[in-house]
Every structure is written in C-alpha cells, then in structure tokens.
Amino acid sequence: MIILDSLTEFQRLYRSGKKWQRCMEAINNLENIRPGVFHSVGDSLVYRLVSGSEKQRAEFEGHRRYFDVHYYLEGAEEIEFSAKSALHCVTPYDDETDREFFTGQGETVKVNKGRVIIFENHEACRFRPEKDLRKVILKVTVEESYFVNK
Question: Listing from the earlier edge strand, what are the strands of the sheet with 39-41?
Fold first, then answer.
C-alpha cells in the first residue's frame, strides 16, 4: 500500500502515463457524478464516489487485474491490510469480478481527508469507514503500470 499525503503529491509522482492522467481526469470530474454510479475514462479506468454509509465486508478483499486508488474527500477511515500470502483465502479469485476474499489479521492505518492511497495487488484490505466518509475509488488496470520509488 502506498500512502500519499495529498493529491498534489500524487500528481507530482504520477504525472506521466495515460492511466495516471486518466486518474486526474476522473478526479476533476467528481462534481458531475452521483454516488455509487460507476463511470469510466477510456478502457483502463473506472471510478465511483463512495460514502461511509455503504455496507462493508468482514473479509479482506484482493484484486489481480486492477489496482485501487482511493482519494479521500471528507472524513476518515481505518484500513486493515496484509500481504495475501499471510492471509487465508476463503473465496478464490473470480476473473469476472476481479476479486478474491481472505480472512486473517493485518496492519491497521487510519487515513483522512486529502490523502491518496494506492493499493497494490499483492495485498488485500478491509475498511472501517466513519459516517462522514466521502472518497472516490478509481480502479486502474495493472497493464503498463509502475510505482515511483518502489
């Protein structure tokens, strides 16, 4: 998991490449979308606006074909994350949904407004949002991706 302190830091580190530019295009379009509705930018990114009132899973969730970028607009959330290899798989990978589910324990971090989190695919996460949470979730294809300073 990569934790960035601000959208400015995200833009500075991930400014080149079509998929990163599409992330910014999606974030710049947030005032035009409704919560819970998926939107897409090209063929490499889908995104949606989320509020803390959504039902959360008890299991850790992992992905393989897409990685998530979360940009926190309001409120805070506790994230528990772990390497998939340290967890127990309870629902095998489904290629149609790009999800697999795990149980176990991980490390916990609290994130708040303004932060950008990039979830890497060798890890799985589960979330405990506060009521006033508002964030955008961007699902970005792993093809031709790279992480600065990794």
Answer: 2-4, 116-119, 66-74, 134-141, 45-51, 39-41
DSSP state of 31: G
Domains, the chain, with CATH or none:
2-141 (2.60.120.370)
| DSSP alpha helix (H) spans, 34-115 | none
Report the alpha-carbon distance of residue 54 to residue 129 in Å, rounded: 9
CA distance 52 to 107: 21
Give residues with Cβ within 8 angstroms of 55, minimum separation 6. Answer: none
pLDDT in tens, 104-135: 999 999 999 999 999 999 999 999 888 889 99
Strand ranges across the sheet with 76-83 = 88-94, 99-103, 60-62, 123-129, 76-83, 107-112
Q: Are 109 and 79 in contact (CB under 8 A)?
A: yes
DSSP conformation class of 11: H
pTM of the model: 0.89
